[in-house]
Structure formats: structure tokens, C-alpha cells
Amino acid sequence: MLAAPVTFNTLNKWAAGISDTLALGLLNEAIGLDMPVLAAPVIKAALRAHPAYSASTAALRNASAHIMDPDAVTIRREDGTVTADWQAIARRLDELAPTTPK
Description:
The structure is a single chain. It contains six helices and five strands; from the N terminus they run βααβααβαββα. It is α/β, with parallel strands linked by helices. It has one domain: Rossmann fold. Strands 1-2-3 form a three-stranded parallel beta sheet, sandwiched between helices. Strand 4 and strand 5 (82-84) form a beta hairpin. The radius of gyration is 14 Å and the shape is globular. The chain starts with a strand and ends in a 6-residue tail after the last helix.
């Protein structure tokens, strides 16, 4: 399962087990079912410095979620807009995909 782009709010709610949206409910169920989950947070440095961020990423990693480095998946444009680097996310998905013998 892929969660992308993940905001500061979503990441912290997910780590706390809050299921107030369908997406969070599915992510929480995936953890409970031991399904592989890749999260690509697009979160600015100021929010990553907040103690909740490190606690949440640690909790999710402890639950076997794969959390990408926000610097590796965030594209900041000259006009100030931010987007996810979908190619980087796709490469990480490929790395995590189970290989099937041919």
C-alpha cells in the first residue's frame, strides 16, 4: 500500500491510530494486518523538527511501515509550490516489491 504525499497531520494521526478519514482507516488496518506500507511524507523541515514527527515515524517504522526521507520525495519549485517526486516514490516501490521467480 502506498500513502503519498503524506502530510504532518496525517503522519501523526496515523501513528496515533486515529481513523477519522477513510485513508487513515485503511492505513491503520494495513498496520494491523501486517501489510507492507510505503509512506512518502512531504513535510517541511520546521515541522520535521517538531518532537511529534520523530516519535510518529519511529512508531510507524516499529510497526513495519516504510517511511521515505521527505528530502528524497519533495520537489520545491522556484514559485514556492511543493509537490511529491513521483519517480522517486515509484523507484522505492520497485525496490520493496517482492520478486517473483520467472
